[in-house]
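sanity check this chain:
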Amino acid sequence: MPSKLSVAAFTVLLGLSAALAGGAGSMSMQDGYAEVNGARIHYVVQGQGPAVLLIHGYPLSGELFSKNRDALSQSHKVITIDLRGFGKSTAPAEDPGSLSTYAKDALGVLDTLNVSKAVIGGMSMGGPIVFEMYRTAPERFSGMILIDTIANPASIVEQNLWKGMAQKAVTYGPQSLVDELLKDMLTGATRKNMPQQAAFLGDIVKQASIAGDVAGAKVLATRPDSVPTLKTITVPTLILEGLEDTVYPPVFSEKMHQNIAGSTLVVIPGAAHALTYEKADQVNQAMLSWLSSIR
């Protein structure tokens, strides 16, 4: 039967030891680039052990996971990437990005690093990319992590929202998306009491290229229905959801949990869409607890 950690039950998880959270000091970090599919993909590798690849959402970069790498690297090789057109990654003008290309790029980075199999996770837009990777190369997965994401296709309203984001980026530049997105990435309490979090995420949004913003928005607006894919997932799966997420609210994580056999759902209170950054300590404990259970 699928297992679920409710908001109330999650408080038990918070009692895990500091050692589990990886507070003993960070592992050395490798910062590099992979030339794949005509693009130059920036990656960061930290730690040793079973591999964990984390894929960011729109329009962010691998630095979304900057608060998670130290903790996870105590027991795992943690790989984060910047999708083409985002962060430090670049792409040719003729192929700024698509769902298929993003998936191939991520697999190409694994090839570059000689990683045959990994726990592969995606946040928001990273989720549809993970589903695409699973449809094309399920043998590369030792597990799956789905973070504040969705398997459903975009509704008409959502399609037009992403089209508007793309048009705004073209007209006013990537920096114009900061205010549009931060109100959903972080809770109001965090934006008020921890403005440094908003500043950090805002800086990442500004790093995206216009072409990347447009390509990513198109991917979100036109993503396929991945609900049928859920029942084909046979690897251990962790679903992480912020209780205050207004982009893809908990109901969508509940649906994924119900359709992925044996999956684990953790709902974290006080967190919006950028869950891995806003509530990093809780996310790290949840990930480490789950990862230790699938070894």
